[in-house]
Design brief:
single chain, 467 residues, five-stranded mixed sheet, four-stranded mixed sheet, 31 strands, 15% helix
């Protein structure tokens, strides 16, 4: 789960196991049994917990807006905007769920680009990759490498400690648990305790058996996976696409209520069809069907929004109109209605702030909302009750639905130095410090920017090497 041991087990390889294509993991609010003691949010930094295949949480509006506040623009500048826009372009290029092949063979197993050696030496992390991964988390995807195996319970009976181990990631074709992620085979060892600087907990710790260590999913970066200094994502991997396809595919039907920001679209043509629940009213005055069985929306697109950097409001409100599909009550008849969203604040707001939290290496970190704001619709989807038994399915409200944006804040601490004193020695002068990580934007051969905007590679070299 949180830690991935990178050794290879030759005895398992000798078995000649056939590897599945891969798998994805789903995220939602923590279930009551998902406690820190057995590995769920032990450090207090997770968005949510891994869900079962029938408990997914997903967005329900096809277009989300995003913008940048004054803190982001001040620290990251135009180059930071370019880096985030590059991440959103990757997401906008995801095809609709129905356009993906059954095997997902058109998508790569690896999307980790060649390391940038200079960025690695200067301890620079890629802003674009971090933005890409954290937005995937806000769409309902967890990091599958972390949740190949997980503990369901730790039971002590008659002096014997028993661990119930489950799997919380799924083959994107068969939709069954698997121990393969992007062609990489995993096994596990239960560790009790897993020690940290603040808490000890039990965990089913994954070990990679075979496969390319660079076949990391983009979703895993924000879910305790992480990329090293100088590493970056070129796009999404096969399993990232598979997770989005499962969430958004048309045949994945759940009972859902329209996002609070969605209303029936005004109809001006006298020849337009009558829609909504009250067909006796005049066209354009009837009420939208709010709660119904709805298929997946197929794709989520992201549109940049011009924001008043001081008020965090849209300079010009944006209206998106689309067709909402749903099934008639107690029927398999598919119908639709024309709806709209008027957005006055961005759904996702990128910000910057000093996020130092008492950890030595905290230069390139971020904060984002947890899944507590997501809505559990298990009661709506249960037959004959069952509310409280299931942890989903549910929906992820848009940022504009409650007049509060999904704020993703990147650390603006900037370059910092670490001096230490211990029994092994005292390293307390300028000559003996170590440098914490910083944000940057780069590819394999070029560093486009180091942040704060205006900080140069030469500045970092002088801090690191004194020249």
């Amino acid at each position: 789960m949180r830690r991935i041991t990178r050794n290879f087990i030759a005895t398992v390889l000798a078995l000649g196991l056939a590897l599945d294509v891969g798998a994805f993991s789903l995220m939602g609010p923590f279930a009551s049994w998902q406690t820190a003691a057995i590995g769920y949010n032990p450090l207090g930094v997770d968005v949510g917990g891994p869900m079962s295949i029938s408990e997914e949480y997903r967005p329900t509006v096809p277009v989300l807006t995003y913008g940048f506040d004054a803190t982001f623009l001040s620290f990251f500048g135009a180059n930071g905007v370019t880096a985030v826009n590059a991440a959103m372009t990757i997401l906008n290029n995801v095809p609709t769920a129905g356009a993906m092949s059954a095997s997902l063979a058109e998508f790569p197993l690896q999307a980790v680009g060649p390391d940038n050696g200079t960025a690695a030496n200067l301890q620079i992390r890629d802003l674009k990759s971090a933005a890409l991964s954290t937005v995937l988390g806000q769409l309902g995807l967890a990091g599958p490498e972390r949740w190949v195996f997980a503990l369901r319970d730790r039971l002590v009976v008659g002096g014997t400690t028993n661990y119930v181990v489950i799997q919380r990631h799924f083959d994107p074709v068969a939709l069954v648990p698997t121990n393969v992620v992007n062609g990489v085979l995993y096994t596990y060892t239960v560790r009790d305790p897993v020690p940290t600087s603040t808490v000890n907990y039990s965990d089913a710790v994954e070990t990679r058996v075979s496969g390319n260590p660079n076949n990391l999913t983009a979703a895993s970066i924000d879910d305790q996976g992480g990329l090293g200094f100088g590493q970056f994502m070129t796009g999404l991997t096969r399993d990232d696409f598979g997770g989005l396809r499962h969430l958004l595919r048309f045949n994945n039907v759940n009972v859902e209520t329209l996002d609070a920001s969605v209303t029936l679209s005004a109809v001006t043509s006298p020849y337009a069809p009558v829609t909504g629940t009250n067909t006796t009213n005049l066209v354009g005055t009837n009420v939208a069907v709010a709660t119904a069985r709805r298929p997946g929306i197929g794709k989520v697109s992201f549109n940049g929004m011009a924001v008043d950097a001081l008020l965090n409001l849209a300079i010009t409100p944006v209206t998106n109109r689309y067709t909402d599909y749903y099934y008639l009550s107690n029927s398999l008849t598919l119908t639709n209605q024309q709806v709209q969203r008027v957005t006055t604040i961005p759904d996702i707001l990128f910000a910057a702030g000093d996020l130092y939290a008492g950890t030595p290496f905290s230069g390139s970190t971020l904060q984002r909302p947890t899944a507590t704001r997501w809505v559990n619709n298990s009661a709506l989807n249960s037959v004959g009750g069952g509310a409280g038994i299931l942890s989903g399915p549910g929906v992820i409200p848009s940022g504009g639905s409650n007049a509060t944006a999904i704020v993703i804040t990147f650390n603006s601490l900037g370059p910092s130095r670490l001096n230490t004193s211990s029994a092994a020695g005292r390293f307390l002068d300028e000559r003996s410090y170590r440098t914490n990580g910083v944000w940057g934007y780069f590819d394999a051969t070029r560093i486009y920017s180091v942040f704060p905007d205006g900080l140069s590679v030469q500045d970092l070299e002088r801090q690191l090497y004194g020249r």
